[in-house]
Specification:
Length: 238
Amino acid sequence: MRNIRFFLALALIASIAIFGCNRNTEMAEPAEEQAEQLQTGDLVFVALPLDFMADTTEMGSAIAASTGDSVGINYIHVAIAEVANDSVWIIDATLAHGVDRHPLDTFFCDFTLNDGSLPQMDIMRLSDNSNAAKYVENAKQFTGRGYDLYFLPDNDEQYCSELVRNSYIDEKGEHLFSEAPMNFKSNDGTFPPYWVWLFEQIGQPIPQGLPGTNPNAMSKEKCLKKVDIKLTDYSKAQ
């Protein structure tokens, strides 16, 4: 058990989050007339600049290096929003919590960067959002499961975009989001050091080429549209 805890602690340190909740960004007051309002089932994509962590020794930078498209911003995490009783909840899969449902401010706390700021967070919505509540209920069925460090499609654990794909299933039983062969290599054809370290620790080969998902590719799915919403407007932090 001690070895497991030690490894998980190392894995958590290796992720992009985070050294506390004291952010240096002030929460904006909610707009009096906001064109769009956050809705249940909206997806929150967390982005970092390509050069934010260029050494690829941490999970966030390793994801960016492996799945980025060199456009300047790469999505390294995706979460599901739920609006309930005038509060915003987040359902996602992280190293810190596994699959969990928690308040929005916990999500902000988890992703506060070393300098106290928040990364870019973009909101995307299904073009047809009529079954969003059902998809969120699907996601809740996964809470309590562990984070999928193996990135495999056939185990009980879930990584962030895998959770979204397995939750957003239509009435015909079909996934709204597609899979593709996973890539863990950088543009130069080598594996970022973080992936080499991680899979050596868990004693498994890097699952290069196996079917899977990633936030960057998911953000480009045709069924999604970007919504002009500032997520921090919904924070209850003072």
